[in-house]
Amino acid sequence: MHQLPKLKWKPKPCEKVHRLARWLQQWKWSQEGPDNIGRRAASIRHTFDLNDPEVAEQIAERLTQAAKTDPAPEAGQIRLLSSAVLPSADRPVYVALLNDSGSNTLLVVPFGPFLEPATTTEWLTGRDAGALSVLCLWNARTLPKEVLLRSWFVDTLTVPEQTDALAVFRHAATGADLEDRLLSQVGCTITKPNDPRLAYQAQELRLFTPAPPKPEQSPAARRRGNIEFYLPWKAPSESEEIVLQARSRAPGSLEYARYAVGETPLVLTLLTRTDGKQVEVSILDQRENPSPDLDGAQVIPREGEAVRIANGRALCQRDAVLSGFGFLGANGKPINLRRLE
User: Which of 75, 134, 157, 178 fits as disulfide partner to 161, beta carbons 3.0 to 4.6 Å?
Assistant: First the structure.
């Protein structure tokens, strides 16, 4: 009996693979420069015609009346951020407001620039408006409500939308499993260090970095003599982002900064914890291990209480260092810091 030939076949790619392919095409177009603006624009599902005089008049009226009629920021809203909040943004940034904890802050989640989710931490909302297609839960930030006053009300999230968004946020922050229904609405996992989605995340991190508030010099700050204060945050580089992903399951929700400490080989790092309320200060040696060499030194928030370094570490309240911090040695003398890019 003749042996039957072996049949070679390839399984049909799943929808998530097709979705990733579409995302990669949109990312490629976004990197090719202004010559492809027309082609990229054609891929976006416009819901109105700006050349329509009636539409243009409605938009003008809406912007004129926004400051008078917009509701105060609260959980469940979709809002358009002012350029005063994101001065480096090169596109309109829409955000969803989630998780009203009863304090003066809200969890703010940006909508992405593409029509497909890039990773398992981006959620396809199912909305028709292209600008509201994908919610980037990995890039969530906690912002004070007074900052969000510099924005315009756009729409309201339904209760199911809020529930699904928070489920994907918990997946981004803690690694919690997603139910099958939501798994079909997110992107693919990043598995390789040269994946272009890492460069995309680094780009979006830089864009979605709110301008720090202009510090007001208080009497307490003026009494601190020759202490130099440093504004803490910068967007992580692509390589730093990989390190952050290894340290936490909430990539992109973290703020990170590194400083050279005086003339020593030590490095001071600031890392916002995933709760968004505390900042971990570390003194690291050349092997990136915690160093006790500066134990007893003090981190001096511009407006808050000093915190001492112990065993190479300290915890500060994020809001206390947001407008700046100084650094004193154990002998009470200021130590100069130099930002490492």
Answer: 157
User: Contact 318/283 with Cβ under 8 angstroms?
Assistant: no
Q: Which residues are bridge partners to 339 per DSSP?
A: 259
Quote the CA–CA distance of 292 and 24 in Å, as a whole number.
46
Domain ranges (residues) in the chain: 15-207, 219-339
In Å, how far from its chain's centre is CA 211? 13
Structure tokens that stand for 79 in this block? 């809002």
Backbone φ/ψ region at 83: left (φ over 0), alpha (ψ -120 to 50), beta: alpha
| pLDDT at residue 87, as a whole number | 79
**What is the 3-state secondary structure of 284-321?**
ECCCCCECCCCCCCEEEECCCCCEECECCEEEEEHHHH
State residue 318's pLDDT score. 82
DSSP E strands: which ranges in the chain?
A: 77-81, 94-98, 105-110, 122-124, 134-136, 141-144, 151-156, 256-261, 267-272, 278-284, 298-301, 307-308, 313-317, 325-328, 337-339
CA atoms of 318 and 142, how far apart (whole Å): 11
| Res 31: pLDDT | 82
Q: Over the chain (341 residues), what is each successive 10-residue block's mean pLDDT? A: 60 72 88 55 47 62 60 92 82 89 83 92 92 93 86 93 94 89 89 89 86 50 54 51 42 66 90 80 90 91 84 87 83 86 62
E-only strand ranges, 137-196: 141-144, 151-156
CA 168 – CA 175 distance, rounded (Å) = 9
Return the axis-axis angle of helices 238-247 and 196-207, rounded to nearest 10°: 90
Burial, 105: exposed, middle or buried (Cβ in 10 Å; 0-12, 13-18, 19+)? buried
Q: Which CATH architecture has domain 15-207?
A: Roll (2.30)
Determine the pLDDT at residue 223. 37
